[in-house]
Specification:
Number of domains: 1
Shape: globular
Low-confidence stretches: 1-63, 166-174
CATH topology: Rossmann fold
Helix content: 40-55%
Distance between the termini: 103 Å
Order of helices and strands: HEHEHEHEHHEHEHEHEH
Largest sheet: 4 strands, parallel
Strand content: 5-15%
Strand order of the largest sheet: 2-1-3-4
Length: about 350
Amino acid sequence: MECNKAPRKLYKISSKSSSKVKGGASLLALLVLLTTAACGQTNNNQVTTETSPPTTATPTPDPGKPKIKAVATFLPMYWFTRAVAGDVAEVEILIPPGTEVHDYQATPENVKAIATANVLIKNGLGLEEFLEDTVKNAQNANLKQVDASKGIKALGEISPVVEPVKGKGHDHDHDHSAGNPHVWLDPVLAKQQVTNIRDALIVADPNNKATYEANAAAYIKQLDDLHNEFQQTLQKTPNCTFITFHDAFPYLAQRYDLKQVAVVEVPEDQLAPADVQKVVNTVKKYNVRALFNEPGVDNKLLASLSKDLNLTLREINSLETGDKDPQNYFKSMRANLENLQLGCK
């Protein structure tokens, strides 16, 4: 039936048949009403089919778990943790870059940071002496402490060539009985630290395991490349003996067949007379090729001494200061490599 079209013929009802029509009027009216209703229903169904898409279940948005919070003690630990965490974990640093780690005194902000952290990343080997009381004061029963140097065989606290004098007027001691803590300056040992940090973050946040593994693998690949650069460059100058004024480079020296002579154990702004005499004696005793000072230390006496000894004073960086971008590790280490290469020629 075509409901939207008018009938083609109109039938005239004669008076003779009026009585019959009256009898069938109610039937005719009923048929008209049924036909109209059917057409209306058909039109309504057509409209509904054309304008209403099939309904599908809308997934409930996953609000996601909050990011875990990791606190790293100082710059190299922050770099490594930040590199592994990427964007899936919050990372804070306790000791501001450029601050002397050996003598650091904790602040109320440090206690608060540890109190709200899931993971605490430390270098270990006795470097962060302030941490024990700080962690106690934070009263964080759920805190996971991570020793990034776990599994690393430590060297003795002093260099194997000449015993250094204690720094800062030599009137205090740093208990590095666990060994020299400066393992991050060896790219191979830095890989172990990154691996330890990765494993700790996975334990604390297993849902992001794949991200931590991928980020760590990428950073370790860069460390492998850096190690190869050091190896290829410094193998040309084996057994190069260099003097530093911070006992921070024995791991790097051992890795690449160099010899570090640390005149002072902890860096200081001004050399003591005993330090100066130690430098003179060391240069005479050993075939010292290079003299290094740390960035930011303006020591006029040292500059004058280097001229008297006919040695060029260059910079070598223990990486405790600098930009917080994790890529700055590689920039600073390559600067160290360049200066070692120049000094050991």
